[in-house]
């Protein structure tokens, strides 16, 4: 890395970028993350017995199953949007990584035994809106251009310029994201409102503290989400010559961010070990089907690990985050 200490030094690297000083990182790059996922998918599905895919599933509840030799977790649920039939998953241990729905799944999974990281009081959904440069203007930068981060604005990166190599969309220069608090769990546009979700956010422990103390910033970021002109003004702080006619709509994403008891955004990995509230005595037949007996006493060891918050950028750092999760799970579950 090199410190660029003046506008002149910045212009030697990126002639159109404005700044007082900058950090130049020539090794920084980008990848097509969809291609990364396809490659990982190919490796995972090489053994179909170990990986179940195209399995749409909404967990209804978690039940502990005590057999003569071990304890298991039975997840009962249904396909998304269907009333039946019930689908079940039986496992020795369960790790849930459910993003926007992590709080709902964690609540269903049972009693929390212990935590790794801060307690997450509520999960907020933040919508990140992106624009992109029109094809004629994509050559004005050749590298990633980021502002100095402001952690008060939800997602900490801020509006930045990113040349992409996406197979599906082709080469683009995307601009974003914004960081607007969504009014629905999956609030992919500005006008989606879920009253139950909003009330849960407002009245949860830590939630109302966060909303009250950051009200001004919340309104600013929401206004930028719906105002193309204000979004453009943020982008022009980095590249002043970009005009309204140079950008077009691109896409939106929604990120789940945990809120702790003090109303602060969680910035680190947070996990909870849990155990189903109900445990049954049972036996497994030759087909691994559960033959239910009478209700057993509550067990004393956790069987489930719920990931409640993952640090950003979770895609970029996904393998490192996965290593941390697996290590914590392996140590506690005695794998």
UniProtKB/TrEMBL annotation:
<dbReference type="Pfam" id="PF01266">
    <property type="entry name" value="DAO"/>
</dbReference>
<protein>
    <recommendedName>
        <fullName>L-2-hydroxyglutarate dehydrogenase, mitochondrial</fullName>
        <ecNumber>1.1.99.2</ecNumber>
    </recommendedName>
</protein>
<keyword id="KW-0560">Oxidoreductase</keyword>
<feature type="domain" description="FAD dependent oxidoreductase">
    <location>
        <begin position="6"/>
        <end position="261"/>
    </location>
</feature>
<keyword id="KW-0274">FAD</keyword>
<dbReference type="InterPro" id="IPR036188">
    <property type="entry name" value="FAD/NAD-bd_sf"/>
</dbReference>
<comment type="similarity">
    <text>Belongs to the L2HGDH family.</text>
</comment>
<dbReference type="GO" id="GO:0047545">
    <property type="term" value="F:(S)-2-hydroxyglutarate dehydrogenase activity"/>
</dbReference>
<keyword id="KW-0285">Flavoprotein</keyword>
<dbReference type="InterPro" id="IPR006076">
    <property type="entry name" value="FAD-dep_OxRdtase"/>
</dbReference>
């Amino acid at each position: 890395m090199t410190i660029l200490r003046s506008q002149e030094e910045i212009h030697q690297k990126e002639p159109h970028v404005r700044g007082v000083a900058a950090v130049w990182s020539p090794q920084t790059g980008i990848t097509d993350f969809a291609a990364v996922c396809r490659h990982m998918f190919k490796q995972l599905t090489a053994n179909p017995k170990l990986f179940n895919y195209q399995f749409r599933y909404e967990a209804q509840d978690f039940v502990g199953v005590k057999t003569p030799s071990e304890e298991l977790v039975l997840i009962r649920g249904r396909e998304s949007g269907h009333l039946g039939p019930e689908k079940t998953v039986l496992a020795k241990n369960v790790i849930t990584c459910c993003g926007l729905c992590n709080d709902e799944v964690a609540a269903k999974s049972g009693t929390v035994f212990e935590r790794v990281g801060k307690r997450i009081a509520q999960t907020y959904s933040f919508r990140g809106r992106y624009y992109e440069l029109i094809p004629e203007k994509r050559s004005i930068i050749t590298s990633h251009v980021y502002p100095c981060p402001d952690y008060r604005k939800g997602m900490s990166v801020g509006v930045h310029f990113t040349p992409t190599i996406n197979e599906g969309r082709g080469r683009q220069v995307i601009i974003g994201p914004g960081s607007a608090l969504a009014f629905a769990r999956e609030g992919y546009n500005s006008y989606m409102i879920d009253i139950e979700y909003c009330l849960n956010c407002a009245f949860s422990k830590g939630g109302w503290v966060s909303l009250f103390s950051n009200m001004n910033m919340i309104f600013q970021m929401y206004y930028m989400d719906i105002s193309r002109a204000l979004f453009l003004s943020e982008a022009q702080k980095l590249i002043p010559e970009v005009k309204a006619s140079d950008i077009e709509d691109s896409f939106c994403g929604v990120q789940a961010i945990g809120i702790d008891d003090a109303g602060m955004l969680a910035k680190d990995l947070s996990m909870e070990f849990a155990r189903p509230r109900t445990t049954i005595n049972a036996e497994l037949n030759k087909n691994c089907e559960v033959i239910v007996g009478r209700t057993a006493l509550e067990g004393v060891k956790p069987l489930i690990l719920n990931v409640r918050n993952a640090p950003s950028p979770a895609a970029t750092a996904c393998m490192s985050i996965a290593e941390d999760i697996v290590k914590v799970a392996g140590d506690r579950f005695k794998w």
